[in-house]
Fold this protein.
Amino acid sequence: MSKFHLNLFASLLFGLSGLASYAQASELNADVTRAADFTLLDQQGKAFNLHYHSQRPAVLLMASVTGSEYALQSMTTLVDSVDPQANGVAFALINPEPGLDRQALMAFANAHAVEQSVLQDDAGMVSSTLGLRYAGETLLINPQRWEIVYRGPALDESGAAVHPALAASLQSLIAGEIPAAQLTQMSTAEPLPEHAVPVDVSYSDTVAPMLMEKCAGCHRPGGIAPWAMTNHAMVQGFSPMIRETVLTRRMPPWHADPAIGEFVHDMSLSVEEKQQLLSWIDAGSQRGDGDDLLTQVEAQLTEWSMGEPDLIVTLPEFDIPATGMLDYQFFEVPNTLDRDVWVKAVQIAPGERQVVHHAIATFGPSSGGNGMGDSGNSLFQPQLMTFVPGNDTYVYPEGTGVFVPAGSSFYTQMHYTTFGRETSDQTKIGLYFADEAPEHVLQHYSILNVDLDIPAGTAEHQETAYYTFLRDAVIYSLFPHAHYRGRASEFAIQYPDGREDLVLSVPNYDFNWQRYFQFEEPIIAPAGTKIIHRTTYDNSTANLSNPDPAVDVSFGEQTWEEMLYGGVSFRYAEPQENDHEINVEEYITSLAMGFMDLNMDGKVAVDEMPERARQALALAFTLMDKDKTGGLEHAEFGQFMVQANMMNQDAFIQ
Ligand code: HEC
């Protein structure tokens, strides 16, 4: 019998008896010889993507469970004797324990002073895909070909030293040579815990409804995704790719860390759903009996899903080439209404869904015919909605609305992507008005750091900014934004008593998927509460989307520059009369404080002023220059002076 059949026989046997027989299982898996790409989060919620490490000499992965002394011993011995990190080798542990949560993983890492990433393989999919079977089982991977060049124990039989075969292969890789693949049986064989992986998953009852709910919103005729899930055959054909995109967390495109917070429109797959989907794929993506729900997937609706809007704002038509990258486009459309209105809901309807990646709709005073220039929606414009694929309507939270005065203009920032065919788009914005003024104004504010300094070549560089609520507020949603070097982004709430809660973490930030994350339960923020926004940038060559790893990067609106920008949508707890007006002076002060006050004590000290304060001043200058003449006229300059004075007061009080 070939090895393949033996394995198959063994798995059938385990499946039937329900008991793992370790006599049979002391064999390592010799069939998996290449490491498939994957993304997992570690004990700190940081993302680890295997193929990110393609430029390293080697990647070491070790299976580990919290109760295994042997795995711990293997790890410490490896770190002490070969010091993988010092040699540029990526080293991570993979923990496939079912039900083990982030806190438990963190507690384990802390208790044993583990500095390596311990990856939370909560669905057990990565471990099984890599063929890992035992705690302490170690894979040495050659990133040139993603070939597994060593599988076996990290330790020799004495248990006190690194296994010579592993040490030799590792040395070869570090020296730039390619060692022959080796498999060394484990002398200590502690089987990894088994996941209750579902068997005989039904396409009709389980898979099709799951894809309908989590995928078909985009994967349908005329939708944004490149292929439509219209029947079983389509899904079967794409199964290998589905497997890969789920394993790497690319699909569904939901980037929030599932361990932090609960969000409306969460389209991620649960651990159980992932197991069902992959188990079904691994069993051959069978059709089985029953109906095929996916045949009911309808073409993307073009009508307004909430009924005919009270006002339809039609953007100019825009031609999209077949290929290439497009800068953001900015459109201004005059508001034709002759009365003030309160908006209660918005729908953004792209003309050509496949090319509209996001759209941000705001409004403000007309530019007087000189268009938007390159600067796009001003920070100080109230926002109507951010559209992302799969999320095209925004019904404002109960009791809130956005006040749109007559005679203003609507502004839209459009992110278009190409898809291999020339086309054109004409997006429409549908506004729904409230009959009466709501009790609260829905506010959209920004958190900004214009003093970014991201050194060339750094893989992890963090920048921070905060926003302080001056009145009691209720926070509805948050929006992280960086450009191509953005690697991870998070928001924490710091309450006036100093307590800090992480409320949103996006560990694998992706510029191509911009979105608001709306909390299932709004956050109550008493006056004095800070929202702290942190973004980690990757300006190294390992970041394949990096426009230029050789330059130091500072703040800028172009995608080859960087941004630390956080959007916050909230309402004040107690309404005040002028809530619909943005107090620009106060806003600028808040923005400037938010990135200058480095120690976050609520005061900007002289030595905290950024080296490039002139840059910040230049921004303020630009913002004050409302008529965009390139200089500050009398009235504008007056405002600027007031502003500068306010900032200085804080500095001198110290
Ligand atoms: C919010 C919209 C959206 C949702 C929801 C979504 N997809 Fe996608 N999908 C896309 C887009 C856009 C692409 C192409 C661009 C990309 O890969 O990012 C894509 C690409 C893919 C690809 C092909 C990747 C390739 O390399 O060509 C697969 C497979 C896939 N999706 C599977 C799924 C599955 C399975 C789900 C549900 C579990 C899902 N998608 C949910 C929008 C979506």
About this structure: Confidence is low (pLDDT under 50) at residues 1-25, 371-375, 645-654. Residues 214-215, 217-219, 224-226, 238, 241-242, 245, 251-253, 267, 269, 389-390 surround heme C (CB under 6 Å).
